[in-house]
Design brief:
The protein is mainly α. The chain has two domains: about 1-85, Tyrosine recombinase, N-terminal domain (DNA polymerase, domain 1, Orthogonal Bundle); about 110-290, Orthogonal Bundle (hpI Integrase, Chain A). It is about 55% helix and about 5% strand. It has helices spanning about 1-15, 20-35, 50-60, 65-85, 110-120, 130-145, 145-150, 180-195, 220-230, 240-255, 260-265, 270-290; strands spanning about 160, 165-170, 175-180, 205-210, 210-215. It has a three-stranded antiparallel β-sheet, with no helix packed on it. The protein has a two-stranded antiparallel sheet with strand order 4-5. A hairpin with a 5-residue loop joins strand 2 and strand 3. The longest helix is centred in the C-terminal third of the chain and has 22 residues, at about 270-290. The protein is globular and about 65 Å long.
Length: about 300
Amino acid sequence: MVVQRFLDYIAIERKYSNRTVEAYRDDIYAFCAYINVDPNEYDPTIVDEADIRGWLIELLDQHHSPRSIKRYLSSLRSFYKFMLRVGIIKKDITRKIIAPKEDKPLPVFFRESEMEQATAYDTQADDFESCRNSLIIEMLYQTGMRQAEMLGLMDSDIDLHQGQIRIFGKRRKERIVPMGQALMNLIKQYLAFRKELEPVSTFLVRVKRNGEVVPMDKMTLYNIVRTRMREVSTLKKVSPHVLRHTFATTMLNNGADIRTIQSLMGHASLAATQVYTHTTFEQIRKAYNQAHPRAKK
């Protein structure tokens, strides 16, 4: 039952989210299926490096992307590090396995003119649902929070007096993000509408379903963002995470320090934030090539 011990460890001691634990489980189960072993009877002594390399090759043959294969390997590495730490194995056979290299695509984002159009709906919000939908767009754009972070927001995380939001990110790491006046006004308006439907609440973002007011799920949130942003943008990829990219890119383009952006977004590593500098440089390069007469020669 070593697989289950590992899953319990990352869920209870490391406090990974249910979704993350499920992803680790699925990846390890996939490897068990490849070597034809029941996950409940996993025996690391019968597995060697050749098994892992063979699995990665099969994943490539099945047209998995390098990024996907890297994730599979990362899950297996975490599993083996756990077994090494608790003394189940004496050697980590995943340590020398190299994942295929991947091209890192630049993050896509909405233009500021598109966001102006998308948030122009704010003044037209005159009922619970339209106000809530405007709040979702404005909050994701103004704070750069993740989809899961927004769904987990509690009323107690909103401080309208100080003009700030307390956000719990990955592994429950807390950060404080300021709010602009437009967002604070929307929150006040939304809370007034919500109070008419549900006098007492805990989770901030709610949805009416089957006569009840319940916490919103990720698919509903995704559909709200997709519907609104497709009205103003021609981007093929439209999601809450694109609004997070838009927040970072907008901040950087308007002079924000990259360390500040790292803090606001809750990135553990500066490298995760630096990808937005590449996006901005590509904009600069494009403008230079279009505008400078010598660039065309």
